[in-house]
Write a structure and sequence with these properties.
Blueprint lengths: L4 E2 L4 E4 L3 E8 L3 E6 L5 H11 L10 E7 L4 E8 L3 E3 L3 H13 L6 E6 L2 E8 L2 E5 L23
Parallel strand pairs: 4-5, 6-8
Antiparallel strand pairs: 1-3, 2-3, 3-4, 5-6, 6-7, 8-9, 9-10
Length: 153
C-alpha cells in the first residue's frame, strides 16, 4: 500500500465524547479514531459528519478502530461519498499506520473488518496488506450507446 503519512498532532472530534482523531494520507484522506466504545451505532451517527470534517476540504474516509490485544484490531469504515462499507484497503492501511505511528501495535497484525480479515505489515516504512479474497458477486454489464446528452451504461 506504500508509505502513508500520519500527522503527529491529532485533531479533537466529538462522538458522544471528545476524543483525538488522527489524519492519515494513503493516496486518499482518512480520519482515524481509536476508542473501544465506538461501534456500529456511533459510525452511523457520526460517520457522515466526520467525513466532512473541516480539516479535509474534499472530505475523507473515517475509521473507527478498536484494538483487540497486540496482534489484532477491528476497523469500521465510513467512506466519503459511499457511506458505510464492509471493507476498505486504504482504510485498513490508514488505521494500521496510525497505530504504528503511535507505537500501539507491532509491525505485523490482523485487521478485522465486517467484510473479512486482512494481514497488515510494515517493513522499512512500507506498508503491506495481504488477504485471501473470495468472490462474492458476479455480474454482466452491457454498455449501450453513449452520447453527451444521455449517457447510458
Amino acid at each position: 500500500m506504500g508509505n502513508p503519512t500520519v500527522w503527529e498532532r491529532p485533531c479533537v472530534v466529538y462522538v458522544g465524547r471528545r476524543i483525538p482523531a488522527y489524519r492519515v494520507q494513503v493516496g486518499n484522506p482518512h480520519l482515524v479514531l481509536f476508542a473501544s466504545g465506538l461501534g456500529d451505532a456511533e459510525l452511523n451517527r457520526f460517520g457522515p459528519g466526520l467525513s466532512c470534517h473541516p480539516v479535509f476540504p474534499d472530505g475523507c474516509n473515517v475509521e473507527f478502530v478498536r484494538l483487540l490485544g497486540r496482534s489484532r484490531m477491528q476497523v469500521l469504515v465510513w467512506e466519503r461519498g459511499s457511506g458505510r462499507t464492509l471493507a476498505c484497503g486504504t482504510g485498513a492501511t490508514a488505521a494500521f499506520a496510525a497505530a504504528r505511528a503511535l507505537k500501539l501495535v507491532p509491525p505485523d497484525m490482523n485487521v478485522e473488518m465486517p467484510g473479512g480479515m486482512l494481514q497488515a505489515s510494515e517493513r522499512d516504512g512500507v506498508f503491506w496488506l495481504e488477504s485471501h479474497p473470495k468472490e462474492i458477486f458476479f455480474g454482466k454489464l452491457e454498455i449501450g450507446a453513449c452520447n453527451s446528452k444521455n449517457p447510458v451504461l
